[in-house]
Amino acid sequence: MKPFQADLLMLLVTIGWGSSYLFMKIGIDSLGEFNVIALRFGLAFVLAAGLFFRRFRKIDCLTLKYAAILGVILFIVFVLITYGLNTTTTSNAGFLVSLTVVFVPLITAFVLRKKVELKTALSVILAITGIGFLTIQLPLVFNRGDLFCMGAALFYAVHIIVVSSAAKKVDPLNLGIAQLGFTGLYGLIFSFIFEVPAWPSTTISWLAILALSIFCSAIGFILQIIAQKYTSPTRTGLMFSLEPVFAALFGYVFAQEILHGKGYIGAALILLSVVLSSSQRKSSQSKQRSDIRNSGRNLSQ
Questions:
Q1: N or C: which terminus of the chain carries fewer CB neighbours within 10 A?
Q2: Domain assignment of residue 195, given as a range
Q3: Interatomic CA distance for residues 17 and 216, integer angstroms
Q4: What is the DSSP string of 162-223?
Q5: Residue 286 vs residue 243, higher pLDDT
Q6: What does the angle CA 188 – CA 59 – CA 49 come to, to the nearest 5 degrees?
Q7: pTM of the model
Q8: 8 Å CB contact between 277 and 235
């Protein structure tokens, strides 16, 4: 797979995740936070494992180890986002979770002990500025929910980097499927401890859970892991910066949320940052992949 094709797959994933905010709001209205996570990822695992059963039954211990680690990280991300939304605004949450775009190159640079390239730095600045124009509303007041969302962005960045290392060492499809199972398992355990697990009680809740399971989880996270084998963590993070654009689009179509003038400016800046990132030379991409492989070795030690 060529890097451009991998970027297209990441774009499809981002479109699906842009719709997830709408579905999560519907699901949380009638179910507990851990319950939603358990259903979303548990059903996604059953679907993906059943569809690719012949391949999945050959999964090895190393893949399971990486999947268990990624499942923990992913579970923490969605717990932080869910509880963050209870005590902060949607605009603040969208902006702060999208700080993943900034954390990915910063963490990568820290692990590799190297400076961030000028073009990458400019892309990150454009992306985070665009996200700010698109989602933030003044005055910005930080509270506990804001801190939860910043923590989610940090763990999301770690997830992207660990996936980039793990996908080069094991079968990325089996890794993606097993990751879903572990995340759903953690959600189920916590749901039994802190909640009363239940099935959706309305048709709209079922539709929301199924959409989250099939499109946002089963398809989304598996395609993410497959695509990340052929692209870099920084480009992945920048592609994910389009998520607020698609979230705004779904909000406009299905919830009649109007995007104001500064929102269009933000969307344009985010698109510009992705184009700028995609214009990097192939030699630079090859060097970065080599550095990431070395980073993966350091992380696994």
A1: C
A2: 3-300
A3: 5
A4: HHHHHTTTS-HHHHHHHHHHHHHHHHHHHHHHHS------SHHHHHHHHHIIIIIIIIHHHH
A5: 243
A6: 50
A7: 0.78
A8: yes
